Amino acid sequence: MLLSIAKKGQSLLLLSFAMLILTGTLLLKFFGTPGDKISWVDSLFMSTSAVCVTGLASVPVSSLNWFGQLTLLLLIQAGGVGIMTLSASILLSLGKGLSFSNTLLISSLNDDFSLRGTEGLTLTVIRYTVITEAVGMVFIYLGNVLNGSHWGSAVWEAAFVAVSSFCNAGFTPCDDSMASQHILSKAACSLLTVLGGLGVYVIYDLLQVIKKKQQKLRLHSKVVVGTTLLLLLAGTLIFKFTGLQNGGKINWLDAAFLSVSCRTSGFSTFDPGTLSDAGLLTAMVLMLIGASPGSTGGGMKTSTVAVACAAIWNTFQGNTQVLMFKRMIPASNVLRAFSIIVIFLLITYTGVMTMQALSPETEMTAVLFESISALTTTGLSINGTTGAFHTPAKLTLALFMFIGRMGPFTIMLFLLSREKPGQLKYPQERIIIG
What beta strand segments (E) does 181-320 contain? Predict the structure, then answer.
């Protein structure tokens, strides 16, 4: 029963996203540019990048006509909100066949939230998305006007960037991304990125606290919010003090913006290729960690890495149990977290080696950065590498984006569906570690 539900969930995710990508490819190819100037490969690449909310672009967004940009925007919105609602709905359906502890975990968005309340959760996600994007759009519009943009173009750019920010997509009609934008637009873009990356479960939990329907945040929300703040602060400090190549400096605003953007949104205020080696390494680590479960972002997920780090910390302290915020984390959760991390790193390694073989003329650092950016659906690129790749490399990157978007949730579904209580108890025996 549980395996059947998981397979249906995986099929639904794969089919819905594949159909969106195909539809977007056709629309971009035939109507997306003046004079049919975009190739099939670039149409597929841009459509995949939009649906998977990655932000890597093989052609500039500004080269698309109004219909092409509108198509891209709708694909971003469908891909971003779609994964939030689909993942939540599938997990709630899975709860009927899970173990009691996992059922409680999934249904613990709120005490009065039943497993039959998928419709209510979906409406909450949609309302939250619309309101957040609308408010963000207002501030981005004001920033554009203050920056000297005409009111007409300012409205469109504000709408595009607001949706792209909340969905962690990283697309913008401006060729220099957010480099020339007003500080108000940058701040609104960063805040929308963070709010979109928190995840539907945390959003729901926060709303319940705000409405005073519950007194405090649940453990999952505390872990996600705490990890997010820690990563943003650490990233900002590292980018600020490691600076650029040849001793160049980064101001605090750009350092903070990049710290947010590396968490799978992909916007940039300068070329990440100019970062120091320490900065590039930090950016790739942040991309791999990514956003949170049930969010518009990708990566291994904040809660996954937090549980693994907590396990390591408790091991150093001599604890036989994994404790977080005075709560014990089940061993199954810890094993699942380490499994996802190892699988994700193996996929990343395979992806990097594949891209290096397809593009031997490209510097290894650029290939590594680009591959991680695609697999984590971040969308950051260094030195305009994406557009310079040949057709086989572009198609491979498009596959990476799809895997990166579908992979983590599919892996989790697989691990959940394979969980079964042990019927036999075997003798315990230790293995020498280290």
Answer: none
3-state secondary structure 365-406: HHHHHHHHHHHCCCCCCCCCHHHHCCHHHHHHHHHHHHHHHH
Residue 64 contacts residue 27 (beta carbons within 8 Å)? no
Report pLDDT digits (tens) over 74-131: 999 888 877 666 665 555 555 544 444 444 444 444 343 444 455 566 677 778 888 9
Using only the alpha carbons of the chain, give its radius of gyration.
21
Element (H, E) at 100: helix 100-107
Amino acid at 242: T
Give the global pTM.
0.85
- Mapped onto helix, strand or coil, the DSSP state of residue 328 is strand
Contact residues for 340 (Cβ-Cβ < 8 A; gap 6+): 300, 301, 304, 408, 411, 412, 415
Tokens of 240: 């600020």
Q: Summarize pLDDT for 257-288 with one digit per residue, the tens.
A: 999 999 878 899 988 889 999 999 999 999 99
Cα gap 420→423, rounded to integer Å: 9
Amino acid at 68: G
Distance CA 322, CA 120 (A): 34
Task: Note whether 298 and 202 are within 8 A (CB).
Answer: no
Q: What are phi and psi of 107, to 5 degrees?
A: -90, 5
Question: Cα–Cα distance between 351 and 370 in angstroms, integer?
Answer: 10
Rounded distance, CA 296 to CA 249, Å? Answer: 31
Residues paired with 324 in a beta bridge: 327
**How many structural domains compose the chain?**
1
Burial class (CB in 10 A: 0-12, 13-18, 19+), 119: exposed
Per the structure, the complete domain to which residue 247 belongs is given by 2-418
Do the Cβ atoms of 267 and 165 come closer than 8 Å? yes
Q: How far apart are CA 250 and CA 102, in angstroms?
A: 45
For residue 328, list its beta bridge partners.
323
Q: Nearest CA to 109 among 217, 205, 219? A: 205
Burial classification of residue 192, based on how many CB atoms lie within 10 Å of its CB (0-12 exposed, 13-18 middle, 19 or more buried): buried
CA distances (Å), origin 47, targets 15, 80, 390 = 15, 13, 18
d(CA 184, CA 192): 12
Three-class SS state of 210:
helix
Torsion angle (degrees, nearest 10) of CA 64, 67, 68, 73: 120
139 Cβ neighbours under 8 A, 6+ residues apart: 184, 185, 187, 188
Mean pLDDT of 41-48: 92
- Alpha helical stretches, state H, 147-182: 151-166
